[in-house]
Design goal:
The chain is of the alpha+beta class. The chain has a single domain, classed as Alpha-D-Glucose-1,6-Bisphosphate, Chain A, domain 4. The chain has 3 helices and 7 strands; from the N terminus they run E-H-H-E-E-E-E-E-E-H. The two termini are 25 Å apart.
């Protein structure tokens, strides 16, 4: 089972792509830090200082300015996330995020999907604020209790 989230960002695809893969930019909208540039085959350590959390992601595929595929965790057991970028006109990009690996038989299946959707919508809202308006203070605002 998969979860799909889509946004339009008023920025060229290359700027949206770089916001994800460049460790000096990702802290402006998503993780507080990323250990290195995201490249295919790398294991990247990402941190959320606000939530005292650190995890690894395995970058499975990169297509410059078009696609990023990664798996949560470095052990091959986490969900797979595909981020697709489609520039629809100069300075407008549709970003689509698909997270796969949910199991309908899990007792908290619906809660997992809702929590996941909330996270992606929040992150994309922060990305939009960052790339369109230069706002970098939204990232840590989601309350998780």
């Amino acid at each position: 089972m998969r979860n799909l989230t889509k946004f339009t960002i008023k920025a060229p695809a290359n700027e949206v792509f770089e916001a994800f893969v460049d460790p000096s930019k990702i802290g402006n909208f998503w993780f507080s830090s990323s250990s290195e540039r995201w490249e295919q085959g790398k294991i990247i350590t990402v941190k959320y200082k606000e939530y005292n959390a650190q995890l690894e992601i395995a970058v499975l595929e990169i297509e410059t300015n078009k696609k990023i595929v990664f798996q949560w965790g470095a052990n091959g057991e986490g969900h797979v996330v595909t981020i697709t970028l489609k520039e629809v006109e100069p300075s407008n990009t549709i970003i689509e995020i698909v997270e796969e690996g949910f199991h309908e038989n899990d007792d908290d299946f619906v809660d997992q999907l809702l929590d996941n959707k909330e996270g992606w919508v929040f992150m994309l809202s922060c990305l939009k604020g960052y790339l369109e308006y230069g706002v970098t203070a939204l990232r840590g605002g989601l309350v998780k209790e």
